[in-house]
Design a protein that fits this description.
The complex is a heterodimer. Chain A has no helices and 11 strands. The model of chain A has no long low-confidence stretch (mean pLDDT 95). In chain B, strands 2, 4, 5, 6, 9, 10 and 11 form a 7-stranded mixed sheet that branches. In chain B, a hairpin with a 2-residue loop joins strand 7 and strand 8. The chains are: A mainly beta, B mainly beta.
């Protein structure tokens, strides 16, 4: 059974760098059609995908946050790390780590979906 | 960027009702469209992927349809445990994006 668990600071000061770690089990990020994504949700608001890293080390970032984000993986540790620089209060949110599964569609583009989510970690940005 | 717009943003319904939620993409996403359910204080769960394929373990009263830019999530015979928020997500572009969500409340 795939599980993911997020960890990181609960409180960060403005302008600091936020580092979030996702430790997962029961799948290998080196296997094809797998990815790990980070999704956040400010209180009472919608979901926002921040970044995804794929089994082949392909990385995708939210265009609006790309300059502030870095996603990396350590397949030997079953770990994915997201760093966000220069945080500000609007970055206050619950941050989720997700398993991103691909399925053959019969065309050039596979179907991808987030079939397992971590419980999330709440991060507040405040001085 | 592909923008996803859901409507309505909230609705009230009764147990046993049929509920339809709409999701519209700013450009065609073919059938690369997923639906999630989220209850307060919990992480989302996947309901439907590829517009109409039911995720394993999801009750058959949930169904999805659509292609291109317009999609619907239908819940037949609404159950008490279905009162939650629902989000669509496109996976056509290089980074997925979500709709704003629809909250289904008890009438």
């Amino acid at each position: 059974q795939i599980t993911l668990k997020e960890s990181g600071p609960t409180l960060v000061k403005p302008t600091q760098t936020l580092t979030l770690t996702c430790i997962f089990s029961d799948f290998a990020l080196s296997s094809s059609r797998r990815g790990v994504g980070w999704v956040r949700q400010p209180p009472g608001k919608a979901l926002e995908c921040l970044a995804v890293i794929y089994w082949d080390d392909d990385k995708r970032y939210s265009p609006s946050l790309k300059s502030r984000l870095t996603i990396t993986k350590d397949t030997s540790k079953n770990q994915v790390v997201l760093t966000m620089t220069n945080v500000n209060p609007v970055d206050t949110a619950t941050y989720y780590c997700t398993h991103f599964q691909g399925q053959v569609s019969g065309t050039l583009l596979d179907y991808y979906y987030m079939d397992v989510w971590g419980k999330g970690t709440t991060v507040s940005v405040s001085s | 960027d592909i923008q996803m717009t859901q409507s309505p943003s909230s609705l009230s319904a009764s147990v046993g009702d049929r509920v339809t939620i709409t999701c519209r993409a700013s450009q065609s996403v073919l059938n690369y469209l997923n639906w999630y359910q989220q209850k307060p204080g919990q992480a989302p769960i996947l309901l439907i992927y590829a517009a109409s394929r039911l995720e394993s373990g999801v009750p058959s009263r949930f169904s999805g349809s659509g292609f291109g830019t317009d999609f619907t999530l239908t819940i037949r015979n609404l159950q008490p445990e279905d009162f939650a928020s629902y989000f669509c997500q496109q996976s056509y572009s290089s980074l997925v994006s979500f709709g704003g969500g629809t909250k289904v409340e008890i009438k």
